[in-house]
Amino acid sequence: MAETDVVIDFTQTDEQQMLRELVSKWLGDRSESERVRELMDTEDGFDTAEWAELAEMGLLALPVPGELGGAGMGWTEVGVVAEEMGRRLLCAPWLSSAVLATAALLHVRGDVADELLGQLAAGERRATLAHRPDHTEVTFDGSTVTGTAGFVVDGVTADVVLLAVDHDGGTALVAVDAADLTATPLPVLDLTRKQAELAFDGAPATVVASDADGVLERAATVGAVVLANESVGGAQQVLETSVQYGRDRKQFGRAIGSYQALKHRMADTLKHVEAAKSAAYHAVRTLDTDDADETLVASAIAVSYCGQVYEQAAGDNIQNHGGIGFTWEHDAHLYFKRAKSSKLLFGSPTTWRAALADHLGF
Amino acid sequence: MAETDVVIDFTQTDEQQMLRELVSKWLGDRSESERVRELMDTEDGFDTAEWAELAEMGLLALPVPGELGGAGMGWTEVGVVAEEMGRRLLCAPWLSSAVLATAALLHVRGDVADELLGQLAAGERRATLAHRPDHTEVTFDGSTVTGTAGFVVDGVTADVVLLAVDHDGGTALVAVDAADLTATPLPVLDLTRKQAELAFDGAPATVVASDADGVLERAATVGAVVLANESVGGAQQVLETSVQYGRDRKQFGRAIGSYQALKHRMADTLKHVEAAKSAAYHAVRTLDTDDADETLVASAIAVSYCGQVYEQAAGDNIQNHGGIGFTWEHDAHLYFKRAKSSKLLFGSPTTWRAALADHLGF
Amino acid sequence: MAGSDDARVAEALDRLLTDHPPADTPHQDFWGAQFDAGLAWVQFPEGRGGLGVNPRFQAVVNDAIVDAGGSISNRRNNVLGIGMGAPVLVTHASEEHQDRLLRPMFTCEEIWCQLFSEPGAGSDLAGLATSAVEEDGTWIVNGQKVWTTLAHIAKWGLLVTRTDPDVPKHAGMTYFLLDMEAEGVDVRPLYQITGEAEFNEVYLDDVRIPDEHRIGEVGEGWSVAMTTLSNERVAIGSNIPERGDGMVKHAVAAWQEHGGDDPVARDTLTKFWIEYEAMRLTSIRANANRKAGNPGPEGSTGKLHWADLNKAVTEFGMDVKGAAGMLYPKGYEFTAPEASGTARDESLEQLYLRARANSIEGGTSEIMKNILGERVLGLPGEPRVDKNIPWKDVPRG
Amino acid sequence: MAGSDDARVAEALDRLLTDHPPADTPHQDFWGAQFDAGLAWVQFPEGRGGLGVNPRFQAVVNDAIVDAGGSISNRRNNVLGIGMGAPVLVTHASEEHQDRLLRPMFTCEEIWCQLFSEPGAGSDLAGLATSAVEEDGTWIVNGQKVWTTLAHIAKWGLLVTRTDPDVPKHAGMTYFLLDMEAEGVDVRPLYQITGEAEFNEVYLDDVRIPDEHRIGEVGEGWSVAMTTLSNERVAIGSNIPERGDGMVKHAVAAWQEHGGDDPVARDTLTKFWIEYEAMRLTSIRANANRKAGNPGPEGSTGKLHWADLNKAVTEFGMDVKGAAGMLYPKGYEFTAPEASGTARDESLEQLYLRARANSIEGGTSEIMKNILGERVLGLPGEPRVDKNIPWKDVPRG
Lengths: 362, 362, 397, 397
Fold this sequence. Notes:
- The complex is a heterotetramer, with 2 copies of chain A (362 residues) and 2 copies of chain C (397 residues).
- Chain A has 362 residues and is of the alpha+beta class.
- Chain A has helices at 14-30, 33-40, 48-56, 75-88, 94-108, 111-122, 215-248, 260-286, 292-321, 332-345, 349-360, and strands spanning 127-129, 136-140, 144-153, 160-167, 170-177, 182-185, 195-209, 250-251, 254-255.
- Chain A has 11 helices and 9 strands.
- In chain A, the strands form 2 sheets. In chain A, strands 1, 2, 3, 4, 5, 6 and 7 form a 7-stranded mixed beta sheet that branches.
- In chain A, strand 8 and strand 9 (254-255) form a beta hairpin.
- Chain A starts with 13 loop residues before the first helix and ends with a helix.
- Chain C has a 4-stranded mixed beta sheet.
- In chain C, helix 10 packs antiparallel against helix 11 (302-320) and helix 11 crosses helix 12.
- In chain C, strand 6 (185-190) and strand 7 form a beta hairpin.
- The longest helix of chain C is centred in the last third of the chain and has 29 residues, at 263-291.
- The chains are: A alpha+beta (362), C alpha+beta (397).
- Chains A and C meet through strand 8, strand 9, helix 9 and helix 10 of A and helix 11 and helix 13 of C.
């Protein structure tokens, strides 16, 4: 891992900037606080009409090759979109379908995968991936799967569930139709991102790829890094909310943001949020390279650090708001819960750090 | 370890209060900053005349029975004295002779030990103990010792060095005369507490006790707990120094202690210092009981927590003073270095916590 | 003198415990007898629940009752009355009010709440805007109060209002007893991060209060309110948890269920356990020093310390749970519990959310640090821009 | 326009590197040629070491010189001249002074220092008290300056004085060039926590400065000083460490020597390594955005972030060393090193002590947070008690 071989390039293309503005504008119309609260109270947790709009804008298949119906861009662009979505807590099965399942399918490719990628891109179907091997217990007998998978993101609403299964001494990626499994919604802390426990009882499974070694590792890395970018969006948003409240809210005849207690806390948040952005932006760029070592290093940095920074920023945001920040009606708690859930979704920061420490020879 | 069996009693006797005042007054005369700086620049690091005064006041043998020339008090009183000494960074081989060696000798007792205790009490001799088994490599052949011992407190100036050695399948406590060993001063971070590396080359060794199991554990526990009490004294002192500077020093036309950045930091220090005092006071009281379990628990709490609190308070004290706090001429760095050295003298906080975690079944 | 007070308390206590064995007497009956014995608030005058002795004897009384199998839970369940309302009444209210109100307060027959905070006046309590205007011996009150615990079950409210907006803020306030059943009082649950509503918003719409329910003089509301708040610390009192109890217990449980062999989490858990025990020892030390008549700074740091640590340890506990830390098994229920969340023994998940308020309620940690810095350490205050100008001219929002 | 500037810079750079191959040219000669080529401060006028183009080209120039095996160490070794003095001279000084001073400054033939801070004026620079009184075209200066790096080897000092104590503090200051060899200038080493003296105290005792060495008008000293300070950030510039380099490297080394198999320390070490790398990436991102003409907040957080982390990681590193962390092997030597401690590559022990100053020097972390909060985030300032009153009436101490 010689430093000189590592490419670190923070260039933002005009295309990325346009994409950011497009998404930001759409979210402004579709994901204001009231709408988030409507959707988070539904069991499905999203709106199919809005999903169709995302498909139309090409946001469901950014890194998918053009010949499959995708935008032919990269994960870097997915990161830009995730960051904006994180700012607005978009309620939609985007992380599961457009990121996790898409990353798994792009890893294996082949006819079955490509056909499904096309359907996902078009918004015709939604997929998810059982991405936690520590909570997945399934056996595959060549044509059906039996077992359970926990903490499956959007597991209730996905049309198709992808599973990595032991097969022929290796790993196969198989797809199970929603109709052939039982999905039980989990009582999630973060109502804006649904999760489910899935049960398979001899469910018919289509082999997407019989040689899918490393598919879960790749998809989890992609998912975690994209989520890190979403998290810096959320952290930036709560910082801005705190700053605005610090300007507006007055106690003892002064704006509360004029007090060092709050001002310095926000300065510390700024410091961490800027560093977290750097980590997230670099990590998502490595996903578009072939540099496996740097992807490992950059992912571990981004995932462990951004998770912590968001959690801290979202907690501080509650404190910065005083009493109102603790109420259900204020959005502060939604970000706080999203932050915690995001920190844990792909394993704890300690786990990611341990992988890095191994790699660095510590 | 049922809670109901644990005695927690913070009563301060009038005797303890008088002792505190006596020591505080003596230190005010003998350990002002200038004097500390004079002594720390000497190789011996203390003044024999002052040592005689300590002996006269009975401060060298507080927990030693009256019939041996001691004060017949307890370790609780030693803690009171240590706290006051910590406030003033007294330069004297008190921790080594009146605490570590004394604790070892009180643990074994017997004729040889009792005679030495009497000499220590009278200030006729000074002893120390090689208290770090991880840095002690000595063999005992029944009459002489050979090997080395590192990080021996006041190893250069002690008249006699106590060693715990393997003997007859158990542990013996032996004493080596200063004339029979080679002591090399260590380049210490904290100039106010001297340490040495000792070398023994067939040095004649007197057996103090041939059955001295647990002597190092006991002496190290006593030493660490007394040091925790010294540390809360130091932490209290740096807090008071910061507060005074916060009142006096003005920038932008205001006392700097009126700014929340400093005020809140000092409030946090206060919070930790008060908790550290509670931990230290309780722990030193367990040394005067037979409750081995509670001694273990209370020691681990006090040693690991007080070490951290002092380090943090002493570092914050530098920051609270701005530029002047970073100069050699200001005392802030002396406390900072004492804090670090104290945190490490009896093993790291992590080690003490691990012992507690084992005990609690975590 | 002190000796004779000692004897009087001991004698009254002995008689109370003998005549009304706490373990066999219904709580409410016992509390009534305790009031009649002058052992409710020992520092109060005789006939008003006290004996006119040093308040430090109260801790002795409370401990003795608990040791004898009795309960002092009234102090918690009606904390705003017993802890804060009573000293106000005994200092400022009429004889009739004292006779009428103190005993049912102590027995919990009548629950009390406190109507101080407003949406625009949180830390800056003296900035409050709820107006009271006198018309023919009756005060007409309009405004909104918030963070009022127990308002939905309370009979009486302690209310501070703005009666003169043209003088500096501390000078224009007046204090009232509010009958919570009066017309125009609208209590609405205020749902919080947990989905529960421990607190209420109270809307006051042309509420009429007779002048005889005014406590203290017109314009003296701030000093009356200070009587209330200065008793808060005493009210919170001396409840020492068992070793290892409280929020750290839940983190230990999470560790035991989910921790596996992660040595990093184990060390962090031990660090928390240690700091909780150091805080607990500090409470014990503070109680001992208070009883010995020698209170020090150790009695003032607890609120800040527990708040910080409660937030941190529950955050950590959720992490220890791993994927399960993404769940909220009880669901968000939108109910109004009878007691405050920190008093109940709930799940880690709920405590994790509930603890966010520990550093806000009862004085934010920022205000606590100001107080510790200024009143305990003696550091100077900040320049004030809201003094000596009419309340109506102070920037608000 | 930008296109043609691009071309001019590229051409001048190409010629410089061709005519004076950096790897084979003595540093001082190369820097002289660089000055003559207008590539010392590209934004300065031609003939004054510049080309009159956008300063962002300087980063391109510097990178090219380093890539070609040259040195830009003059920027660090004479940082107070090249980074801060030069912009002041080019903005405020006479033609003669510019001609005389800029080139030897850039080549490091003449070292510069800055005489701003005083014992009573640290964070509050504008509170300074060193007086300058005019007598027949000469200024008589008396006072004490402190924290002056390089004063013991400097030829020139940038000096701010108080010339009118009867006006508000920002209005009564005047700026001078001080010949450090003048009579009455007494430079004394200021020993610090490490026993070294990187800094000096400078005593000024009836020092005479000719009026022609005044920079800017009488009473304009503050705005001239601001020219200096606003260039500080540019001066500190774009030096990006290698991955894993800097203070964390020493903690890693301590871990490798002493860490053993302690999993807790291993995780903490990794956490530090990660945060250092995140900061380093932020510096790279800040440079990229600056070069693209699009600087953002990422360029302002570094000072604060490094300061905090440098203190924490060295503290941790000492702990990892265990008993050896109680030692200071090099001893306390009371010497005055040539360069600043953070620039040199020293032992962990020394860096541990030296890092204590990182959050004080060049703006305390408290001041940095005020700046980030107010200038970057747009939060309101605090009430000021030292404005609009004569300097002599402002409380000091």
